[in-house]
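Incident log, structure service

09:12 report received: a user says their structure output differs between two submissions of the same chain.
09:20 pulled the input from the user's history:
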Amino acid sequence: MDKKERLAEYFHSKHYIPLKFDELAVMLDVPQEERTIFSDVLKALESEGCIFVTKKGRYMPCTGANERFSGVLRCNASGKFGFLVRENDEDIYIPFSAMGNALHGDRVLVKLTGMRNGKSEGAVVKVLERSKEPIVGVVFTKHGKLLRVKPDDRRIYAEISVRPAGAAGAAVGQRVALSGLSFSPDGHVFGRIDAILGESGDLSSYMESIILVNKIKTEFDSGTLDEIAGISDEISWDPEEREDLRGLTVFTIDGELARDFDDAVSIERLDNGNFYLGVHIADVSEYVREGSMLDREAFERGTSVYLPDRVIPMLPEKLSNGVCSLNPKVDRLTLSVFMEIDMSGKIISNKLAKSVIRSAERLTYTDMNRLFENNDAEMEKRYAHLLPELKDMLSLSEILRKKRFERGAIDFDFPESEIVTDENGEPVEIRTAERGASNRLIEEFMLAANETVAEFAYWSEIPFIYRVHEAPSIEKLSAFQLFLKPFGLYVKGKIDAENPVKPKAFEQIIDKVRGTVVEGIISRTMLRSLMKAEYRAENDGHFGLAAKYYCHFTSPIRRYPDLVVHRSLKRMLDGRPSLDFSFMRTAAKQSSERETSAEYCERDADDLMKAAYMLKFIGTEAEAVVSGVSAFGMFAELENGIEGMIRLENMTDDYYVYNDTAQTLTGERTGKQYKIGDSVSVMIVRSDLLSRKIDFVLSEDVSHDILAKFDETHKKRSRRKK
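09:34 re-ran on a clean worker, output below:
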């Protein structure tokens, strides 16, 4: 039992009487030199809700009549109430009047005060730790020498005052980032401005806010840039340590706008008729050395972040677009995996090697799709020197794809939106992204390489980072079954822990809805019903791919786990000691967390661009498909994938009742019913950049009163920004 546990036991014993800090130290015979450590232990117990400190400074146990609970305060966007969120226990309702000086995101101590609608209600008695989340807001007025900032996040109900010393030159009407919150005795909140993000109405200021709130680092440290300056643009290598593959026909296939090429492919036909596929990945670990500033920064970032108007790279461009990128006609260091694959798609053997390649061509998905799908004469002529290899690759990719789905992998190849921006970062077009045969070809080859390397590492028993995807939880699966019921669909198999559902059951659902208007809706809902994939130092398989072994090996320029995977493999190939297993766990956890932040940032940025794009279509009508139904209205999706909300309050022709089981809205008087998949005509009536939400009204419900209501809301928000 450690010190903290012994102290907790003491506080909760029948012999304990309320004591102050010095009295406790004397009672427990704590030496003077250990009192700082003793204080830290007490603070930890307080933070965990084990004890609390009275106004007179006495320590009390959180039991019986004094029972207290700790957790994070999550406020409602209205600012009128919140909840104490506790791990593995029900939330506690906190009315606004009982929040004290606590704000959304703070870790607080709460005492129970009663019950409300069968739920526990409480009051904040102490703020244990202020939220460290970034705060963004708009300077809306100047009161004397103080600037007043209204947070963008409506859950932070308090306006923040900024003294001249902390104003950083900000002016009324600008969006700013704040920190260092403190409370005055009269309850006012003060903070300091760390950065000016731009004018409040500018799209760029919203984008900078998204990047900041999601904790995405945009600038490289000076030490990292100093290290980069010392890296030569010319490669050097030892022929004794690397295979020279420069005589092999190798090429890259990527998007037209891609600038960093971290994978190249090659193929040969063996005398026995089998394919000999080579996947060659940029050897980034040769330049990003363990323990270097570059390495520490790559670890911190975890991944590149892809936004509609920019890429925030994991590595500086000198590496990502330069010496590491597999550009055509230049020598590059790589890590290659070769796979002999028979006509059924079975991998007969494999080989891993440190190598040097020279890419023959930089091919694009657009050109290759024209070649593969349209037999384009111009493409055939331009790439005549690669046609045999390209045809073999296409054949092999189709074989691999067929085999993967036969074993039960889930095919999430549903249409996604692509956002096109101009030179100013403004959205000019939102369209359905095209995915053709060449996209699927590269996907299959990368999947094969990732599986092969993961299995190789597993049986070699080396410390490694795997990409793990667990089977869906019983709760998520049950919810998805309810969602499917109105469509006459269900996931085959028992919903219990002992007999987990197979991935093939999900693929069968996709097969049934493929090509229908609800394909994208059901596929996206299915994706949300599955567990989130993550990185782990242990191999637990990949449910979605129906793979026993899987890792990320093919993108070390933009993903830190791939870089670590390369290091582990190269240590084994070189006969050097393995990496530390505990580091693998640390790197896996960090990479998973940074991936989540990047995904949130990318999602928020996409939603912002969609809202900005739709501003120019306010008042226009369009055809849409109902994509979701709820107690407060329904969602509808336009042809380009943009989704808007049709609020129940604006469906004026009848009083509509929500049926949770059938997922329908039905008019009491007319019997008119709306369900997912229905086609509807809508008018775009509002698009809000701050909330990133879009509002539709059914065309048949459009009236002067409804349009006036949306117009007035827009005017109020505009006035707040000025």
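09:41 both user submissions now match this output. Likely a transient worker issue. Closing.
09:42 reviewer note: Residues 474-530 form one domain. Residues 716-722 have pLDDT under 50 and may be disordered.
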